[in-house]
Structures are given as C-alpha cells and as structure tokens.
Amino acid sequence: VAANQPRFEQGQFGKAIMVEDGTKNYLLANIQTWGNYTLNATTYSITSVSTPYGSGIKLTGTSADRVGKTTSGSMNLGTSYAVASVYFKPVIASGSLAIYWDAKDNTGNWRTGTFYEQKINLSNYTPGQWYRLVCTANISPNIFASGTGFHIWAEGTFDVIIVAPQLEAKPYATSFIDGTRAAETPTIPN
C-alpha cells in the first residue's frame, strides 16, 4: 500500500489488515560514505551530521551549479519500475535540491531519462522541518551496467541537511515517520 494509507480496511472476506512489506535499498544508505560531487561549484561545504534518521550530510554554500554526493555501480532492479527518495531538512528557505541518476543499460547505452533530475525549490519548505523528496520512474531494460551514477545535490544559496537516500524496486517508497499515522485497533469478529 502507499505510504500513510489505511492499514485496516475491507477485504474480499470482510476486514483485512494491510502491511507494508520489506524492501531492499539499492544505494548505500549512509550518504556520508558517498563520494563528493561538484560541478562548477563556487563557495560551499559538505559536512557530516547525525540526525534522527541516521548519518547524514549538511550542504552549505552558494553555487551557480551542483554541490552534493554521488555513488555508482552496477545493479539489477529486476522490475520495470523504481522509486528514489531522500529525507531533507532546510536550514534556510533558499536554493534547490535534486535527485539525479545517470544510468547505462545492460548493453552499455546511456539511459539519461531514467531519473532525470527530479528537482525542488527549497524556498517552498519551512526551515527546521523534515520533508521527503520522492520520485518514481518506469525503466526498461532494468539491468544497469557499471558506470552509472546516482547523485543528490543542492544549487543556488543553500543550507540543507540530507539523510537516508533510498532506491527501491517498487512503485511506492517505503517509509515510517513516528506520528504520521493514526492509531488503528484491529478487532476480529467471532
């Protein structure tokens, strides 16, 4: 089921309990271990931080182009769809944040439209609060060769904390944030 949807609802034989299944993250979840990624960057810093969601990074600076992190490698998603996500908390409401995936298919051809720069404007978000950037893609073929790169970067004048990147072979991002779901008490009739 999609995130934040009811888990207790009508089923074929009466009531049913809906449960999210487990997931495999095709990325290194600790973004601190990723390589630094810059393109025409000017004044910036990339620092490690600790967050409620695990080890993260803080991107601070002013840049006409990209400042962030990147990871690469071959992967076989085994499906024709994928979803990428990352948690972020703006410290200031300025700049932009992007997820981007450079992908080569199993024949070595570039698949630049797979995750082509899902970008948001950070001025639309309240500083000090956690949010999640999620983007989905239909992919075919679904085996990606070495040389692919998954990037998360900021641009403009930015100060943002980033943590918990995920790439999953499913149509909905797996998530849980305390307090976002209403309490549900299942009952079983006699």
What structural keywords apply?
190 residues; mainly beta; eight-stranded antiparallel beta sheet; two-stranded antiparallel ribbon; 12 strands; 0% helix; globular
Model description:
With 190 residues, the chain is an all-beta fold. It has no helices and twelve strands. It has strands spanning 8-11, 14-17, 35-39, 43-51, 54-72, 75-76, 81-90, 96-102, 115-121, 131-138, 143-144, 149-168. Strands 3, 4, 5, 7, 8, 9, 10 and 12 form an eight-stranded antiparallel beta sheet that branches. The chain is globular. The model has no long low-confidence stretch (mean pLDDT 79).
Task: Describe the secondary structure blueprint for this structure.
Blueprint: E1 8-11, E2 14-17, E3 35-39, E4 43-51, E5 54-72, E6 75-76, E7 81-90, E8 96-102, E9 115-121, E10 131-138, E11 143-144, E12 149-168
Antiparallel strand pairs: 1-2, 3-5, 4-5, 5-12, 6-11, 7-10, 7-12, 8-9, 8-12
Number of strands: 12
Secondary-structure element string: EEEEEEEEEEEE
Helix share of residues?
under 10%
Fraction of residues in β-strands: over 45%
Kindly provide the radius of gyration, computed on alpha-carbon positions and rounded to a whole number of angstroms.
19 Å
N- to C-terminal distance:
27 Å
Tell me, rounded to a whole number, the average pLDDT.
79
Report the major sheet: 8 strands, antiparallel
Low-confidence segments, given as residue ranges, are none
Structural class category: mainly beta
SS field, number of helical segments: 0
Shape: globular
